[in-house]
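README: folding subset

This subset contains proteins for which both the sequence and a predicted structure token string are available. Records are stored as plain text. Below is the entry for Helicase (723 residues), shown exactly as it appears on disk.
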Amino acid sequence: MKKFFTNKYKLQYQQLKILKWYDQWSENQSSNPDTITPVKNVSQGSLAIPDKWNLTGDIQPYFWQNDAYQKWIKNGNKGTVKVVTGAGKTFFALGLIEKFQCLQNDLHVAIVVPTIVLMNQWFEEITAHGNILETNVGRLGGGYHDGFENNVRILITVLASASDKLADTVNAGDVGNSLLLIVDESHRAGADKRSSIFDTPRIASLGLSATPEREDSDQQGNQKYDESHLGRELGKIIHELTYADALALNIIPPFTIEHYGILMSLKERGTYDSLTRYIRNLKKELEYCAPRNMDFWVWIRKESKKDKGNSAAQKLEKNLSKRKGLLYSLPGRSKALKALIDNELSVNRDAKILVFHETINDIMALYFDLVNSKKYPVVVEHSSLPDSIRQQNLELFRTGAAQILLSVKSLIEGFNVPEVDLGIIVASSSSVRQRIQSMGRVMRKHHKQKQAENNSVIQILYARDTIDETIYGKLEWDKILGAGANKYYHWDDISKPPINVDNPPKRPMPEDTDINLSDLSEDALYSGKYDGIEFSCDTTGTVTNDEGQMVDFPKELTEKILTIKGAGRFKVTRNRFYCLVHLNEINTWITKFVGVLNHLPGPIEEPEETVSEDWVNNPDNIGQPYPATILEIQAKYKFSQKRGGEIVKKVPSGEVYARGLERADDPAKGENADTLLKNIKRIHGTGKKINKLIVTLQGHVLSKYEGKYIYIGNLTAGLEFPR
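--- output ---
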């Protein structure tokens, strides 16, 4: 019998349902159409737990998976595996559980994942291939409230729920002495509000991520991850596998990454440049008041949330968002996308195409554009769609009724994607992690292949001469993806073929380990990355770290810093200890080499003894190093050359000056001020310039000079200032 409701009409019906949903969703974007009905303790447990677990079926592990397991054991049953998306992280974890259960017969496992989708996928993976019954696998989060009671041996939990409940759940089940904690996409657990999962008692830990390092940190590389909170809790990076490695091991198919640089219109360029200038000036203003011991952008986010009204931090975030919105919604992206789709379908009419974008509104705008053209078999996937529509969309894509799947970030992290021929990243953030995960959705081996040599192709659109190019300067992509995998194009006119270019829009600057000391000279441009540990040098040559502690720093280098740049911040590289300064010359930031240290400088160890009264009262000690530990500071002042010399105190309305004997109501305080000024002028006469003053709890006045506190005088009565 002939079927009238064919795949073509199924797709059209689904597209109409999506349009109907979007009309309703747009009316109230704050609503949550994907509400999950809570389910309480659905796992009943079973006594039939096999003596030896099998979670991987008959599938044989890759060599890297066996190698990584041995490294994990040698590292004391803890460690982080840094492996690209699509290379088998989940299968590795299941194999590790199998092997570890042979050593720990009473094993219990807690698997922490960032999303409900991932929680359900882990549940399906464990129960589909192994000999563990569904009733022995629990879930926590997304409406589930299981624990380790009723013979539950594996508990899969969403990160948000794990942060609140996992430690108590493990303690309630009394399974801490047999627990293996696995954190999937472990970079997500690095935020302070999520780190309470590490209060969970356990005997073993495993972290899984393609990019475990936190991107909101200035710490870079595996070594710094190992020293981070995540690295200490989960274990250092014990195994790493790049896309180039996975390709060499035949884990993923051959692939090509095509990068297309599109142009903005003159009007778009004008708006972009105006926003960029405003952002640059605002950022420069805020950097002056940002705390040194906190990442600048973390501080901005906190300030923006804390302040009410039009604070500078809020203005910065607002304009950053406006500039990002301008880039994401460029009409040129939609035109280029359709040209790429048309080209693919012209050579492979059955092609399956996966498209990534950054926001729901932008992906829906693309969806409307493609649907209205009435020639593209397209569906859409994002987190705000109801479950029923999402599942049907994916099913239509799997069966080929829909050949194009538009997606937002929900598809990037952990979602099992059907076989695709082409991936197109229409727009993306500057996140290296997101770029790697997006590519991993496409670069997978599939059991069913249409041809013997199945190459994956990923096409990336970026706006030329904008912050879109920043990501190319963050990583040496040829090292990660393999030489020859990347092809670069300029696409000035979408109606014409793109023009091949030899190089990416940017390349990362060399690390200090890539630059030989013999190639450097003092006060010359430094070609490497301005990166390392930050310090600050004041006008006296005193160097402090980001906690305000004075640092033992070579005098000859501080003199060079003051000559080349003047007072301010500078950096010492982590590996070769190059001393660098950052300068703004003719609206361009440059880095200069100052010199090299033998080791990373540390805080000065001050003497422990207390200063005697005889020492304080000896006039010969004025201007000499202070011989005691500074336990606590009670006041800070400044010396000013105004009116022959003044001691200045900051107040909310501005500044006030200490009164001398002629003007003070309290003669003792006035005498203290005069004596202090006389001592400062005496010290200036020796060539030591004093400006910042501190007063200890004992009343001793000190100032930093060349990395030491020097003694200025003793306030027996204090100072008097106008009210």
